[in-house]
Design goal:
Elements lengths: L1 E8 L3 E2 L13 E7 L6 H10 L4 E6 L3 E2 L4 E2 L3 E7 L4 E8 L6 H12 L4 E8 L6 H12 L4 E6 L11 E3 L7 E8 L3 E8 L2 E14 L2 E5 L2 E2 H9 L15 E4 L7 E3 L1 E5 L4 E4 L8 E7 L1 H16 L8 E8 H7 L4 H10 L4 E8 L1 E5 L5 E4 L3 E8 L3
Parallel strand pairs: 3-4, 9-10, 22-23
Antiparallel strand pairs: 1-2, 1-7, 3-7, 4-11, 5-6, 5-23, 8-12, 9-12, 10-24, 13-26, 14-15, 14-21, 15-16, 15-20, 17-18, 17-21, 19-20, 22-26, 24-25
Helix pairs in contact: 2-3, 5-7
């Protein structure tokens, strides 16, 4: 397995000359994580021309994770050249009104195979219920397949997101990437670092990822009461105060971030489900706790991995974490890398939702979480 990373900017092009081509299509994966405000059409035209037939998957970001820093106005591009592992990808349309669990099952059916070992998902970030998507996909591919990835971002704007496969960026969509073969070794980790505060409240009315009432009161009005003057900046300001869900005897709460609000209905739409009957609290974070969470995710993902093997780390973190960390955002990338095998190259993006297994279980939708997918290949 070989891992090559390059940075790309529309004004200056490649940071270093990219691979010239000649890659074996069925055993090569190219992924790109891109600032949505730049013109990246030339980038994908270049990649497709250089590497005909190779899977080129990409999404918009809320910050591009490069091997040693986080940037804006850039593309973080990684080439994974496998020796034995095979690569396949598919793209399916999605949008408002779609059955997201069925979309997950359709994606899983398209990727399914007896030797499927990992599925990486890059999804539209504004029109998909990540909880339903993750469950449908996981149910279809089974418990032995590691399902990870994230929901595309648009910074704090929440205006539009995109995913692409090759040069195809048309419509709202989900891209699924399948990695096949027994020589693939996968490690996953997910940790937050947020602390609960304020009273615990009961979700008395919800529909999927739309929250209507807390303790019998309109959810939006109650939430605004906590935000005070910051309520005028919704939904972006909600990134600083997500909800933590306690349900089913969880050791750690599942964190949920607001995607949009409906002033007329006084509802809040989250990236994943807010189950009726669950208990929720507001959460807040401190820089040190977030950095420690990233290190914990690295340690969790590295457990059982070869400490000296060539390793790729797909890092998907939340835009809310980036807003809290501010100019210190590079520290969480440094912290997770210190916990990873020494020959690790990382790339990824800040997202509107993170997909990863929870403590060895099935894939779930997370918010405000650093999630990590480590890939290695056994030597032939």
């Amino acid at each position: 397995m070989r891992v090559i990373h390059r940075s790309w900017r529309p004004d200056s092009g490649w940071s270093e000359p990219p691979p010239a081509g000649g890659a074996t299509p069925e055993s090569t994966l190219i992924m790109a994580f891109v600032d949505p405000l730049i013109d990246s059409v030339p980038l994908f035209a270049d990649l497709v021309a250089r590497h005909p037939g190779v899977v080129v998957a990409a999404c918009s970001s809320s910050g591009e994770i490069h091997p040693d820093e986080v940037c804006d106005e850039s593309a973080s591009v990684v080439w994974l050249h496998f020796d034995q592992v095979q690569v396949r990808a598919t793209k399916i349309p999605c949008g408002d009104g779609a059955d997201d669990a069925e979309l997950g099952r359709s994606l899983g059916a398209a990727l399914a195979g007896p030797d499927l070992r990992a599925a990486i998902v890059l999804s539209d970030g504004l029109h998909v219920n990540g909880t339903a998507l993750a469950k449908g996909l996981s149910d279809e591919v089974g418990p032995d397949v590691a399902v990870t990835g994230g929901l595309a971002g648009d910074g704090p704007r929440f205006g539009s997101t995109w995913v692409s496969l090759g040069e195809d960026r048309e419509g709202t969509a989900i891209v699924g990437i399948g990695l096949y073969g027994d020589d693939l070794v996968v490690g996953t980790g997910s940790r937050g670092g947020w602390d609960a505060f304020g009273p615990e409240r009961e979700v008395t009315r919800s529909e999927g990822n739309v929250l209507h009432e807390l303790d019998g009161q309109p959810a939006l009005a109650l939430y605004k009461r906590y935000l005070g003057d910051r309520a005028t900046g919704l939904p972006a300001t909600a990134l600083l105060f997500p909800l933590g869900i306690q349900q089913g005897g969880r050791v750690h709460p599942l964190v949920r971030t607001v995607l949009s609000v409906d002033e007329e209905k006084q509802t809040m739409t989250f990236a994943g489900d807010i189950p009726a009957g669950s208990r929720v609290q507001l959460m807040r974070a401190h820089l040190e706790r977030l950095v420690d969470g990233a290190a914990d995710a690295g340690e969790q993902a590295s457990d059982g991995m070869d400490p000296t093997a060539t390793t790729f780390a797909l890092a998907v973190s939340c835009v809310g974490r980036r807003l809290v960390l501010g100019s210190n955002v590079d520290e969480e990338i440094e912290a997770l890398l210190e916990a990873c095998p020494k020959n690790t190259t990382t790339a990824g993006f800040y997202s509107y939702g993170e997909l990863a297994p929870r403590d060895g279980g099935a894939c779930e939708l997370h918010n405000q979480t650093m999630t990590l997918t480590l890939l290695q290949e056994r030597s032939p």
